């Protein structure tokens, strides 16, 4: 049974899921914590969250595998990406490099979820780049160029891009796929959206570190300001508040036990969940 939970934890939350859901594997967490009712309740909530994420990942994987069984047209055209979805690539596909295979496997769940959305609301699919990424044309993108979700680029069918810009954009988005793959290994399908949200609120636009790592020029981003504006004040206050909210019990425990040789705890609870600041 433990092997099953390890698999669920990794599929749902990556290596971080293993660390959070399987506390008995953590050398720094004493066994007495497992006797706390509130710790057990928190542990069950984490298990439920991992199960939900794992089910979403399995569903996305199934959608991605079913899409892989179909041959997509290539997004290579003389005039635009939008017209390129109707052009069949006559070249025989070459064997993908090892990292391309690894990242395809790791991003398959979130790519499948994006494909499910695109199939329901979109206007066609095509393949571009080497390693390849999938373009899904969705009207909801509006005037926005698009967003990378796993190996699927949710793009607007309206903008026209010349072949050179199309190749640059494919390279930019391919680097985002690498980011998706690494983050999925570390923390599952939800880690990159959370990290991107935090970084984008602190460093918006061209100062976003994920976009800089993917290449600002290739992604058609303007040059970052000089001097840099730095993190946004309101975002710093927001995320400090979030961290304080999430760690309030441990802060209370640290304040209560600071300077004492032995911690005063409720017999039915662990030190972290014992109420009171004294």
Offer a few descriptive terms.
9 helices, 4-stranded mixed sheet, alpha+beta, 278 residues
Question: What does this protein structure show overall?
Answer:
The chain is α+β, with helices and mostly antiparallel strands and about 280 residues long. The protein has a domain at about 1-190. It contains nine helices and four strands; from the N terminus they run H-H-H-H-E-E-E-E-H-H-H-H-H. It has helices at about 1-20, 35-70, 80-85, 100-120, 165-185, 190-200, 210-215, 235-245, 250-255; strands at about 125-130, 135, 145-150, 150-155. Strands 1-2-4-3 form a four-stranded mixed sheet. Helix 1 (about 1-20) packs across helix 2 (about 35-70), helix 2 packs across helix 4 and helix 4 (about 100-120) crosses helix 5 (about 165-185). The longest helix has about 30 residues, at about 35-70. The two termini are about 40 Å apart. Mean pLDDT is about 80; it is low at about 75-95.
State the secondary-structure class.
alpha+beta
SSE topology string = HHHHEEEEHHHHH
> How much β-strand is present in the residues?
5-15%
Low-confidence stretches: 77-93
The major sheet is characterized as: 4 strands, mixed
Number-wise, the strands total 4
How far apart the termini lie comes to 41 Å
Basic shape? flat
Rg computed from alpha carbons, rounded to a whole number of angstroms: 23 Å
In short:
With 278 residues, this protein is α+β, with helices and mostly antiparallel strands. It contains 9 helices and 4 strands, in the order H-H-H-H-E-E-E-E-H-H-H-H-H. The protein has a domain at 2-189.
């Amino acid at each position: 049974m433990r092997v099953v939970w390890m698999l669920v934890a990794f599929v749902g939350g990556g290596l971080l899921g293993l660390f959070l859901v399987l506390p008995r594997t953590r050398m720094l967490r004493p066994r007495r914590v497992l006797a706390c009712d509130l710790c057990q309740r928190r542990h069950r909530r984490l298990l439920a969250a991992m199960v939900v994420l794992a089910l979403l990942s399995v569903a996305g994987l199934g959608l991605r595998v079913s899409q892989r069984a179909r041959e997509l047209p290539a997004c290579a055209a003389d005039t635009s990406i939008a017209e390129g979805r109707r052009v069949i690539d006559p070249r025989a596909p070459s064997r993908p490099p090892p990292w391309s295979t690894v990242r395809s496997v790791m991003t398959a769940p979130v790519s499948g979820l994006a494909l499910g959305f695109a199939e329901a609301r979109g206007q066609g699919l095509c393949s571009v780049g080497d390693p390849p990424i999938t373009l899904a044309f969705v009207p909801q993108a509006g005037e926005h160029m698009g967003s990378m979700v796993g190996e699927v680029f949710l793009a607007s069918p309206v903008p026209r891009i010349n072949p050179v810009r199309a190749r640059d954009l494919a390279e930019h988005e391919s680097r985002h796929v690498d980011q998706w793959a690494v983050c999925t290994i570390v923390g599952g399908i939800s880690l990159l959206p959370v990290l991107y949200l935090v970084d984008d609120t602190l460093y918006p636009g061209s100062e976003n570190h994920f976009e800089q790592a993917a290449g600002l020029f290739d992604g058609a981003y303007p040059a970052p300001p000089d001097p840099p504006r730095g993190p946004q004040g309101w975002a710093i206050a927001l995320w400090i508040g979030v961290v304080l909210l999430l760690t309030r019990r441990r802060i209370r425990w640290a304040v209560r036990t600071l300077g004492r040789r032995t911690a005063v705890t409720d017999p039915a609870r662990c030190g972290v969940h014992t109420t009171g600041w004294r």
